Amino acid sequence: MRRTRALAGIGIATAALLALTGCNSGSPSNPGGGDAGDSGDKPLFEVAKDVKLDGSPTFDKIEKAGKVTIGVKEDQPGLGYLDATTGERTGFDVDIARWIAASLGYGEDKVEFKPIASANREQAIVNGDIDYYVGTYSINDKRKEQIDFAGPYFITGQGLLVAKDAPEADKLEDFNGKTVCSATGSTPIQNIKANFPEIKTQEYDLYSACVQDLIDGKVDAVTTDQAILIGYAAQYPDEVKVTGGLFTEERYGVGLTKGDDALRTHINDLFTENNDIWQGIFDKNLGDSGIKVEQPEVDAY
Ligand code: GLU
Q1: Whose CA is nearest to atom 9 of ligand 1?
Q2: 79 in ligand 1 pocket by Cβ < 6 Å?
Q3: What percent of the chain stands above pLDDT 70?
Q4: Which CATH superfamily is domain 14-156+250-289 in?
């Protein structure tokens, strides 16, 4: 396999460490500020030239199409967000997606983003509707039956969002007999259904619909990854708050076509060899969010 990369600094991958200070700041759509692919004057990464990725069916497909099609979220401030007014996409995941595209030789003008809800991710990858997926996508064995993951590139855990004036809660059992909302097909809704039978559930395709229900007093809590909930708390600081700690470990991976080892290795190498770029993307998007996390070590798979 031959690969060319514009930037390939050597860094040391460190074990993930997540701690939350509970403070939220920054603009809701883009807590870290800055434009796509840059942080002030200096670009965070450059578009690689003359890339060849032998043995990757996905790369061949991308070359044929002349563009990269990436599945993302677009209602998760700080992670994957589309500003409906400006058309600007921001967030940690979106910049990770752009970085991967750039490493394959494709700049922003040759990237197409497709919003795909949690429940539809595996199918979109299996169908070839997208070349890869970057959107709070937890690596797990069930999903690995259908697709592969590069990463992990971020670690968080299941948390809780409640109304601003609700009592603090520190365990899911606090919601026995109450209604908790989450996204269809997500790991948090699966956890509740499998392990907390006394909690009533409300499901939507999008977490933003759950947050609206919480604000409208129709559900008692929203549960999903705390990193996602922190973005909503920053978006609606007067209405909602994150409460309690982390109930699970969610390791985010890049969803890939099963068996495309060349692309998976390329992305894992990119993550491992460029910790400075990862850190720049984190600082830009989540640096002011209150999330404290180090880049996790990429798994050998
Ligand atoms: N990380 C969890 C999952 O992959 C929840 C977030 C999401 O639905 O994207 O299911």
Answers
A1: 136
A2: no
A3: 86
A4: Periplasmic binding protein-like II (3.40.190.10)
For ligand 1, whether the C-beta of 148 sits within 6 Å is no
**Is 71 near ligand 1, meaning CB less than 6 Å away?**
no
pLDDT, tens digit (0-9, with 9 covering 90-100), for 169-207: 999 999 999 999 999 999 999 999 999 999 999 999 999
Pocket test for ligand 1, best of 76, 92, 138, 181 (most atoms within 8 A of CB): 138
Domain 158-243: top CATH class: alpha beta
Query: How many angstroms separate the alpha carbon of residue 134 from the centre of ligand 1?
Result: 11
Q: Is the CB of 158 under 6 A from ligand 1?
A: no
Domain with CATH 3.40.190.10 in the chain: 14-156+250-289, 158-243
Cα 226 to middle of ligand 1, angstroms:
10
Is the pLDDT assigned to residue 132 strictly greater than 90?
yes
Task: Give the 3-state DSSP-derived string for the chain, with helices as H, strands as E and coil as C.
Answer: CCCCCCCCCCCCCCCCCEEECCCCCCCCCCCCCCCCCEECCEECCCCCCCCCCCCCHHHHHHHHHCCEEEEECCEECCCEEECCCCCCEECHHHHHHHHHHHHCCCCHHHEEEEECCHHHHHHHHHHCCCCEECCCCECCHHHHCCEEEEEEEEEECEEEEEECCCCCCCCHHHHCCCEEEEECCCHHHHHHHHHCCCCEEEEECCHHHHHHHHHCCCCCEEEEEHHHHHHHHHHCCCCEEEECCCCCCEEEEEEEECCCHHHHHHHHHHHHHCHHHHHHHHHHHHCCCCEEECCCCCCCC
